[in-house]
Design brief:
The protein is of the alpha/beta class. Strand 12 and strand 13 form a beta hairpin. 51% of the residues are buried.
Amino acid sequence: MIKKILVAALATSLSLAGAAAAFAQDAGKVGVVVKIGGIPWFNAMEAGIKERGQKLGIDAFMVGPTSADPALQVRAIEDLIAQGVKVIGVVPNDAKVLEPVLTKAKEKGIIVITHESPSQKGADWDFELASSTGFGEAHGKLLAEKMGGKGEYAVFVGSLTVPLHNAWADAAIAYIKKNHPDMTLVGERYGVAEDVDKSRSTALDLISAHPDLKGFLAFGSQGPIGAGRAVEERRKVGEIFVFGPFSPGQGQKLVKSDAISGGFMWNPKQAGEVFVTLADKLMKGEEVKDGDEIEGLGKVKPDFENRNIIVDQLVPINKDTVADLAAMGL
């Protein structure tokens, strides 16, 4: 009798597993192409993609190129189109370069969702966990307070072709110009903040070339890390201040030593979850409506003309918060 019960239980278990696998296959694949693989920010995003996919019974996965090269993203998206995925998610390195391949995906009936690229052409929807103006101004205000409203500062972005990073930079610079006229921007901006080594070397060069440099605003998760290391190397901690978004786990030692003064972020793991949540909703044929409550985004007010869903969920990174954020795997 016990043997029969065990056999029946095993058969039921296998049947349920088979049904779950069949459901995941029927639901369609969701592939998310990020800027670059192997860095903490996108490792956290991948965890969110996988966990949400498992919860919803969707085959969701991340593709991380070996460098922040738009051509590698195009190749990855072409590969996903060839695989016949139902949804392609992208965190673009170059919004313009991706337009043709995203349009191609849509023409083949593939749903396209982007992040960190508001009003992306070729996308069904773009979602943001922080408004560009609010995010940029918040960082500009922090830097100005730390610098006492005076001195030279430099701005890093992930690249000169990432619209969102440059929108943050525009907002921060505009805020500083309006409210702190005694602060001077060095150069224009430097497209190095997705590469820790380039951020470090550029910061070292700027510190050498500008003895009165007092601050860095670095928009791109590797920018504050590289600039913070440069400040430590030149023994300028307490004299040069670094602010920007970064992975708390990667930057917590620099925060504790004051080489990085702080910044704001949103939760990249949460962004990964939202990719899959939106994919699930759209694959089911559901429309995004004004006032919808979407897990990970809250109540939304979509911009239907530009296909943007933007909310403000800023998380401060400083000495009081960095350890707890790092302990969350961020």
